[in-house]
Design a protein that fits this description.
The complex is a heterodimer of chains A (483) and B (538).
Chain A (H helix, E strand, L loop, with lengths): L4 H6 L1 H19 L5 H24 L17 H21 L11 H19 L3 H19 L6 H32 L4 H10 L4 H17 L8 H8 L2 H26 L4 H25 L3 H21 L4 H30 L13 H4 L1 H15 L5 H15 L3 H27 L11 H19 L2 H7 L8
Chain B lengths: L1 H5 L2 H19 L5 H25 L8 E9 L4 E7 L1 H19 L9 H20 L3 H10 L1 H11 L4 H30 L2 E2 L2 E2 L9 H9 L3 H18 L8 H8 L2 H26 L1 H5 L1 H23 L4 H21 L3 H32 L15 H15 L5 H16 L1 H26 L16 H19 L2 H17 L13 H15 L4
Antiparallel strand pairs in B: 1-2, 3-4
Classes of the chains: A mainly alpha (483), B mainly alpha (538).
Chain lengths: 483, 538
Amino acid sequence: MTFRATDWFLLSPELFLTAAGLLLLALATFLGKEKDEFVGFLSFLAVGVTAVLLAIVTAHPARQAGPILAGMFVVDNFAVFFKFMILLSIGLTILASIGFVEAAPYPSGEYFALLLFAGVGMLFMVSGSNLISIYVALELMALSSYILAGYFKGQVKSTEAALKYFVLGAFSSAVLLYGLSLVYGVGGQLGLTELAAMYARTERSNMIVLGILLVLAGLLFKIAAVPFHVWTPDVYEGSPTPVTAFFAVGPKLAAYAILARIFYVGFPKFHADWGLIVALVAAATMIWGNLAALLQSNVKRMFAYSSIAHAGYALLGVLGFQTPFGLWGVLVYLLAYTFMNFGAFALVIFLETRGYAAETVSDFNGLARRNMPAAVVMLVFLLSLAGIPPTAGFIGKYYLFTAAMKAGYAWLAVLAVLASAVSLFYYFRIAAAMFFSEAEGARIESSFALTAAVAVCALGTLVVGVAPERVLAVLRLCVPGTY
Amino acid sequence: MSFLQQIPILSIMTYVPLAGALVIVFFIPKERTGAIKAFATVVAGLDFAVSLPLWFAFERGKPGYQFVERVSWIPSLGVDYVFGMDGISLVLILLTTFIGFIAVYCSYTAIKERQKEYYVLLLLLQTFMLGTFCCLDFFLFYVFWEVMLVPMYFLIGVWGGARRLYAAIKFFLYTLAGSVLMLLGIIALYFYNTTGFLGYRGLGHPPTFSVEKLTAVAAGMPAELQIWLFFAFFFGFAIKVPMFPFHTWLPDAHTEAPTAGSVILAAILLKMGTYGFVRFSLPMFPEAIQTAWVANVMIALAIIGIVYGAMVTLVQKDMKKLIAYSSVSHLGFVMLGVFALNMAGVQGGILQMINHGISTGALFLLVGIVYERRHTRMIAEYGGLARPMPIYATYFLVMALSSMGLPLLNGFIGEFTILQGAFARSFWWAFFAAMGIVLGAAYLLWLYQRVFFGEVTNPANAQLPDLSVREQLTLAPLVVAALWIGLYPKPIFDVLRTPSEVIVRAVGGQTAPPPALASAAGKSAAGEKAATANGVPR
């Protein structure tokens, strides 16, 4: 295997982000605590440059030559979509973190460097077209995430979150790896397209099915689907809130990307074997995620369960993988979910950095009087999360419900819409607190960086909701293997 | 009038309140409450003025939709922005702009807190309601239908009574739960029209959400699928109406909402449900509706609603709750008329939607007026009010009589026509419905007796000021409307005739000459034939 000049070019976004992360790590040893904000903006700049490089790569015809690095790395439209989404989520996380990580008594260089490394891992994950490259990239992302969860090492909850995340994450990775080894053992191929070609000629055997199901279990762990969700509430509650916001979006995007790639490209033949299991998992996830969220008093835990429920909705799209319609459903939904979920978390961060614990719903009391625009924007995110038109969340859910109907799972679609209606109850507890309760305390203002992050999310939520045509047209090009 | 055909008059009418709301948000500071009220009133009045020419420009007797606007919105899904109206939409649109105007200026003294947000929400709500009545694309319809809940939720939750939080979320959740099932129905229709689903072969048409096209497609579906989809839509509409047993959100929401909120809820939001049945369920699922058990269930629910609603109303101690429960009974009448599936029933049902909007809206206003003075709505707190407030008592009497269906007032025309339609199908339907009228007279007259007659028992009521000029101005238009419909309903029947004929024909009923009150006997015979033709057991 030799590197060609175009290979270097196609890898340039990932290579640049890696270099930037390393540089930031080195730089951080020289810069003191007072330079935190500067380091944050520097890392944001790095993400911005990576996005520009990615745009250049996307526009260049060289990527159409197919997978590079002996079939390990592919820059198809599907990967490009996820790369942009991942860079968006990292960029938003950085904006939300500036001013937040200053609470830690040590310089924040490594925090931002770790975010960038997690980003590198995810960028490689979504481009992986080979079981090994996917797994290695996933581990890079996961290891960075474990450390990020425990970044506030002085706090017991943060440390607990890191430990839980590490132990359960490592376990799920092992399950995934075991599944991959079985899949490889039967198929004899590591590349996904080769594997699919090999399976097309192979008889169905229990070994293959076991391998597929183990891979599925490992990935369901990462997207926090019931019954593999138990780590989520604790990790989400204990991690620094910007990291929680990141966990709820970034790693899930990447996990859905490889779930889609492996199951859409690799195992279409065995849909019958995993279809019903995914359906049952989706049902359990939607029911339990929403019911448990109803019972939470802690906002972060509530959003943790809400994100579990949302993983359940997105699985409806996975069920529809026999047709591209299901795949588009997942993509549209992830797009909507990124904007609305991150936006909601950004508002939690806003309150937290303004001296409210943002632990119970009552911290939102009277937000409408303390900062009307913030309350209105939060309302938009909540409406979107509940799937009320005309927001991105509705368009996303619409696609998923149609995907489920189309795939023949009408009962699941009925369950999904009802679960979605129930979710309004807990989302609107926050709306009620913001608008109906009396204000306590004076008016509060947001920082520039956070305002920017919230504005991007709000704009995304509304544009996708009101004028989705352009976005949908682009997403329809994002099928694995399409350039 | 061709000028109206050339401009997107329906869109202009729909978005005038939205534009007004935005102006208030961005240009009027919240301290200037006087300016906010004045501006909101001007906007609502302007909107009524914009909607009025539709009444004159509308071509009676022309089937199909008029003033149609069509713009592509999400072409990849087949979603268009389509507005248009027929006679049924026309009367509901006029009711909306009329009540919307009154709702704005009846709130001047009732709302003292957060006035800016209040008027913004009222105007937003008006845009969404008008959009629901105007749009002819299922996707768009769903958008308006859902988003309408948001301003109403806040109106109840911020300015409502003691249990407002509970009432607001209950209202939202109930309605949402029904409408998401309707969404699945819409998706199923969409697939039936295109690629098929769940073993049903699609028709292979290009994707569309057009109400006109999908109505034709739905009517040709196999009966079994029609029944499934009828019930998917049924939940959306029946909860909104509300039909028994889905009515439990109504007394809470109506009672806790501020006066204008109750007026809008009763007068307009409930009509969304009945409008849905008339506009969508009937023409789309004729075979389902003519299936004996489905028809019987609908009629049974309507009659239970009439009688049970009236009986529960009878025992209420809170005036507002009493009026709220009476809506369950009145809307039962509307549903009975609609599901009688003949001209008299359908036209009467639609007319009764308007009547209920006028009478019940006015009664809520009246209760709101004494509530502002006394801060209680308990009937026991009042008594002998006719003495300190003679003008108020007069208005109340007129509207109560209108609500109970006294001849010469609007309620009589509606209830009579519905009974005509019901009688043509079955003596017993009409019998039970008539019992509802008797009970209706009982609860309203008893209420009136306890509140207005006799000596002033509670000294707090002795010095209550009578209606102010502004309060009279809020009520007088409603009285005029009630008298107009009661004395000369023909113009409204003229507007409703053609669209009703289309609907009745779609469900296999006869479309003999429209009901003239004089020829009631002849009509019921025609209706009887229709009933036999439908094959519905009587």
